[in-house]
Amino acid sequence: MTRARGRIAGAIGVLGELLITTGLVLGLFVVYSLWWTNVLADREARQQGERMREGWAAGDTPAAGPRAFDSGDGIGFLHVPAMGDGEVLVTKGTDPASLNGGVAGYYTEPIASALPWDEQGNFTLAAHRDGHGAKFHNIHKLADGDPIVFETKDTWYVYKVYETLPKTSKYNVDVLQPVPEESGRSRPGRYITLTTCTPVFTSDYRYIVWGELVRTQKVDAERTPPAELAS
């Protein structure tokens, strides 16, 4: 009887050690997913952004119209004060390999994004909500009237939020339409759409924010930000 109890106690001890080990491994995985990937992604995005700004300072200019701004390092920086994440580099594409670099990406499919300098259309962007930079983690803090500013080499584009959709299907591509009718708009204009996963720590649904261009401001020699970013 004593020997049997000893075996049971030993088995329980081994099981306990396995559970502790499993817990530690899971904990380390969470740390890696939600912290270390952010560190790596932010470092990569910062290096890309610095290269792009160096190119701007060196006088790089588009040789074939505005879309030549679409360099390998990005097209500009997104500034969203309500999200509190500083500037976000914007590059081409929304596949995970692109977004994992701590950036926001503009859509090339299933509906190709317009770009801010286009005369009309919808500038559609995606970024991670958690991990890999988590640039849109605080998207839920955006409210009607909040500014969204996009910075290029020579122009600040100032948008204002006018509608949000806290939850929709990941397959709902209508939110990316040139005229986002689901947001309440029915006429061509110059829109911006931010998309990311929701709820937090999942990718089951999408969170959408729509804004509309209200003005532009030329970049001066000091790159003085617009008033919406100065406050």
TrEMBL record:
Transmembrane residue ranges: 12-36
Domain of life of the organism encoding this protein: Bacteria
Record InterPro entries: Sortase, Sortase_Class_E, Sortase_dom-sf, Sortase_E
Keywords: Hydrolase, Membrane, Transmembrane, Transmembrane helix
Protein name per the record: Class E sortase
